[in-house]
Each structure stands twice: as C-alpha cells, then as structure tokens.
Amino acid sequence: MCGIVGWVAFSRDLTNQRPTLQAMTDTLANRGVDSRGVWLGKHVGLGHTRTAIIDVAGGAQPMTAYGGDGRVAAIVYNGEVYNFKQLRTELRSRGHRFETRSDTEVILRAYLEWGADCATRLEGIFAFAIWDAARSELLLARDRLGVKPLFYALRPDGVVFGSEPKALLAHPEVRPVVGIDGLQELFATAKQPGMSVFRDMRAVLPGHSLTIGRDGVVDRTYWELTAQEHTEDVDGTVAHVRSLLDDIVLRELEAEVPLCTALSGGVDSSAVSAIAADWRWKLEGERIRTFVTTFDDYATKFQPDDVRFAPDETFAAEVARQLRSEHVRIQLNTRDLMDPAVRLAALRAQDMPTTLGDMDTSNFLTARRIKQHSTVALSGEVADEIFGGYSWMYDDELLSADMFPWVAKEFLQPGSPRGQGRALFDPAFMDKLDLGSYYADHYRQALARAPHQDGESAEEHRMRAISHVTLTWWLPMLLDRDDRLAMANALELRVPYGDHRLVEYLYNTPWAMKTFDGREKSLLRAAVRDRVPRSVLDRVKCPWPVTQDPAYAQMLRQELAELLADSSSPALPFLDLPAARAAVEQPSQIAHQWVSRMNIEMALQFDTWLREYDVELAV
Q1: Labelling 52: which of 92, 104, 435, 494 has CA 20 to 30 A away?
Q2: pTM of this prediction?
C-alpha cells in the first residue's frame, strides 16, 4: 500500500532532478506514512511512499534487481499481489534468488523473467512502474478492475506518472488545465474509462499495461471479460461461489499489520466479515475486528429516504454479536462533517469536487478512525456490480431509457432534475458541456463493447450488456473514490468481490440464475445463508449513510450565502445565481433530502477546487 511517482525523459539527464522527484513524491505522503524514497537514473526518476504491510522490515522502495543477463530493473509499486508466494516459488525454480520476503521483489523478478507479460501472472490489486535500464523502457501496469489508480501525462520526450493527479501536477511541466471534456468527466456520473479531469492527463486502463520507449507507446490489454458458456446448475453455482469466496477472503487476510473488516450490516460486508472471522479463528484463534459508521441520534431519529430504509448500526451490531467480533462503532456528528480541514482533505484526496458531500467526508473520517486500529480493511465493494444488487437493474423504465440506467434514475429524483449535483449551475454553462450527448453517445458505445454468448435470449442479452456497462462505467468511479479516501489516511481497502476469478465467473452466470429466488443477489444470499443473520439476508440494499441533522443543511446554506456574497469567488460566473439564492432562502428544506443537498455541496466544492488547485478552465 503506497504511492508511486516517476518521470522519464529520453532527451534529458535527470540525475540532477531530485528536487522535482521529491516534490512529486511528497504529494503522496499520506499514502505511505512509514518511509519514502527516490531513485534516479540518467533518463528516469522514481519516487515512492510506503505504508508497510508485507515484509515490513525488508520491502523498501524504489527497489532494484539484476537479471541473469546482467540487466538492471527498478520498480515502484502500490498494492498487494495475493499469489506472490506461489510466484516466488516458481521463480526460484527458474533460478531467481530473493533478498526480501516482499511481493514487490516478486513482481520485479517476474518482469525480469517474463517481461511485460508478467502482469498476466499477478493476482491482486496493483499499480506499478518498472524501468528497464538496458532497454530504456518504462512499463506501467494496472490491476484487472482498476482498484489501484495510476495516472500519466505523455511529454514530448517521455512521460510523467503517479498514483494520483496531484503528483503529476507537482511537476513543472504539468498544469491544472481543464477543458470541456474534463468538465464532462467532472459532472458526469458515468466516467469514461481512462479519462482524467485534467487536460493531457490519462489513467492507465484497468487490465492494461503501457510500454513507453524512445519509439513511442505500446498499449497492451492483458485482461478483459469474455463470454463463456455457464455449465453449472443453481446448486452447483451457489457451491462454486461459496468456494471462491472462502479462497478469496483467505488470501486477502495476508498481512503483517492489524487487519479488520468494514461492516455496514448489509449482506455484502456481512458475508466478508463472517468468512474472515471463520478463517481468523480457525487459523490463529483470534477474533476479527469490525467497524460500522453512524451519526449522533441516527438510529433513534432515522427517517427513511428513497434508498435508505433502516440504519446500518443495528444490523451491523447483530452480525458482530453472531461473529463475536471486536466491534467498533464510529459515531460522527455535524461538527466533524463541517470541519473545514476535513472537508478540504476529502476534496484533495480525490483531486476534484464530487456531488457526494458528507458521504465523502464521513468515508474519509471513517478511514481515519479505522487507521487508529488497523492498516488493512476488507470491504463489501463490487458485490452489487457482479451479483446484481442495484434497484435500477430491475426497473424496465430505466433499462429502456437509452441512457446509463443509474443516470436515468437521477433525472427522476426531485432534487436532481438537471442531473445529480447540477441544479445550481448556469444552464448556459451546462449546455456547453452537452452532457445529454455525452451520455447518449457513450452509452451506445459502451453497450456495443459488451461480449455476449451465442443464442442468448433478449433478456439475457440486455442484462449481460448492463452488467458490462456497470463494471466499466460505474464501478471505476466507486473504486477510485474508495481508494483515494482510504489511502489519504494510509488505510488499504481490499475488495474480495473484485477478485477477477469471481468477476469472470459471475459475468457468465445467467441473469435468471442471479435472481433465481425472485430477489436481487440471490446467489450471494444462498452462498452465505448459514453464515449471516436472517435479518441481514432479508434486508433491502441501503447505500452509505448520510447525516439527517437539520443543522448540517443549514450550515451548508450559510456557506453558500457567503460564497454568493464573495465577489472574488471563482465559481460565481458558473452558477445559476437565482437558483443558488433560492436554495439559500428556503430553510424549510427537509434535512434528509440528501439529493437536493448535493446541489449545494457541489457548488461549494467547485469553488474550493478552483481556488485550491488554481484551475485554468479552458472553456
């Protein structure tokens, strides 16, 4: 779990560029709190910040190694490779000698053995860069689902890269310029794979590697979903899922530092917690630690909204009692959520504003509190995408809307008639972004990329395409957010449901089988029915909680009023001033109408982002 940066310049000597590499590395200090280092060659500089998890004493980076042919390679790496022990055994049989117990050295030696194809052998969550001195080539690679981020900006004579955009922006040749396409990515809730908000900056695509040399860039796809025949019946499929989950969670418990699970009380996180608790007790005789997040008076004064029907903490407590876990209840309040330093840190963690407001802030604070006890947390993320857990997957109106179905749902909500978080922005400004065409064009392209099996029914064809679109246009946004908010607190978030074996298997499982009992996530419920309380199995999906304290909404309106009164605000020219004033002057708005509140959150964050990042809008 780390932060990585680098700079390659084929026409320059970079051995005197330590200050630049150090500045880039320092921007990722929160990703790696245990150590940091910089390595310089003639045409390359690599930087690394480390939070140690495997081989705490011996896995320092940047790391170098020599191959049998005498060539040297250097690596910076972020993530966890869960099959590194098996790979190390294989590499030893091929003559490699190891000086550490780290997975970092395994990746480096795998490259020396198999070259760029080494990525196909790695199982886990990772982003890494390897400089091959003999070939004067840089290899960038990212895990199959894109759990770990990796951004780059091509330069006339090379490339600048890093785990987060802020690292690239610390380089003197990379500026925070945002054009129309970047603003589309900023305001859209369907994110184009590989795009960045900042101009000339891209992300390495999930399942891809880039080789950058003097002759240019080679982009390789080393993994992608394919359509395969599913041959097992329901019982066989349930058993297969159960077996996979047992193996996946066992592998992801590998750590030399304290580990826990994030337990919301939903079936996804409860299943992971239950399996982790079983393994931890069986192998080590220890109880797992679990965490749940709530707010002051949330359980006693909870009011249902359109997607939340009950507070998490009562369900999480029931699971914790059954597991006999060391359960920690994280209780936040409005003072915590409105802390200016925390809100700025949450924005800086993601390098851009989002519509999610206190959902982001509470996630950030949750990671901070968990880090006081643990360095690794297992989460239930990705389960909804692969098992079919979203309500819009079962709504024919939304599925027939010729638009990303979750986007179509936004327009039906009273608080987001213009789209999530956009109600206070100038319609003329929004017209320039033309998000309607953006969504329509990209949705058609996304549907066309979905692999299908021969002989599918119309329903199966539609739902396989929706599953693929969800995995490629919705999930990356969540994974990036999760990684950034957690890693801003040096907490590694692992996602067992994101294991590529499980993703591949369920992509090819018929939709009718995923809903065989007439409910969402039928296969997961069946696979863990003896491990999770019945109340949790029967619970309707609820997303991350939001505060319902009326004081929070009032404080947001007060901040918006101050923004409108500030003639120096860089956001003012882009706001719908009558709509913004109306939002300030309507204190009767119910505090738990969180969708409407997103509009204020986005306007405030947009202003902060323009100021803090000195953004140049090329519109």
Answers
A1: 92
A2: 0.96
